[in-house]
Amino acid sequence: MAKIVIFWILLGSLGFAFALAVQMRMMIALVLRRALKAWRPEFEDRVKANTAVVWAAGEKPIPDEMRAWLTDAVEHLRTTYPNPLSHLRTARRYSVVMPVLLFAVLVLGRTVLGVI
Known about the structure:
Blueprint: H1 2-39, H2 46-57, H3 64-80, H4 82-113
């Protein structure tokens, strides 16, 4: 009985962590897109603003074909909003890791613990 309770608590906690990571990604990206729109009107285009947020949160160098309009926005986000970008990176990492952990716990519960 105890292993069933522990399994479901663990599964529920991992599911909550996954949902929280996805929510954090959406909310932080939304706030950063709005900050870009307030900074320069050209970023009212959601695709442009989202591209700037993605490149600002990433570590890769900006491609040459996008460098002209993207460099200022990325530098603005990195200097003005370093903490939200750090949180966005963390949320990205967790939203990729959590489904794998959820699947692993489900397999563990099915094969090893026999609770499902």
